[in-house]
Amino acid sequence: MQQVTGIQVIIMCKAPVTGRVKTRLTSCYSPAQAAALHAAMATTVILRAARLFADVVIAADDVTHPFFAGFDLPLRAQGEGDLGQRMALQARYAFAARAGSVLLLGTDSPHMPDERLLQAADALQDHDIVLGPVEDGGYDLVAMRRLLASIFTGVQWSSGKVLVQTLVNIERQGDAVALLDTGFDVDFPEDVDRAKQCGWQWP
User: Fold this and answer.
1) What domains sit in the chain, N to C, each tagged with a CATH number?
2) Is this prediction's pTM over 0.85?
3) 6: Cα separation from own chain's centroid
4) Phi then psi for 146, rounded to 5 degrees?
5) 104: burial class by Cβ within 10 Å (0-12, 13-18, 19+)?
6) Helix or strand run (H / E) with residue 103
7) What is the pLDDT of residue 203?
8) Residues 6+ apart with CB under 8 A from 127
9) Which residues contact 170 (CB under 8 A, 6 or more apart)?
10) Crossing angle of the two packed helices 114-123 and 31-52, in degrees rounded to 10
11) pLDDT value at position 202?
């Protein structure tokens, strides 16, 4: 399969530090197991993106962590601020480097099918922005064909209002938006089993 070109995929990824990642899983998993789960999820997301797209960058919270050395991909520091400010910064870097468009991903949907990513890239041909809604009120991806940093302004991150508030910003600007089907993130222990049922394989 030929890789998609003309779009930079940026994966926002935390280092798998015990006690600092996937803490909502620790009702059923130890902190070390939760960190291992995060590492497995991130690995799946990164390798999938690298298989499908020709231009993939990892935006890491700690570029010195050895986990990121295992991938033969460009590595950038996420920067400071809330999630929206960090995503805006990464998009700004990409467009400054003349990326045709940008697709930002997190690492909480290892079960995401290839088709979802390809649909997002394809939808950018007719829309300014593409969002992948998830059941908790957020989204698992955001793609844009020009820098639209203001869509992240005033969003209450880690709340159930993320998607709605982002859509309000988009509507205010008059940009054309496409919404993919609603997916889900792996945030709680039951989500791990659900992701496995969707085909994700975790050792």
Assistant:
1) 4-196 (3.90.550.10)
2) yes
3) 18
4) -155, 165
5) buried
6) strand 102-105
7) 65
8) 145, 176, 177, 178
9) 129, 148, 151, 177
10) 50
11) 77
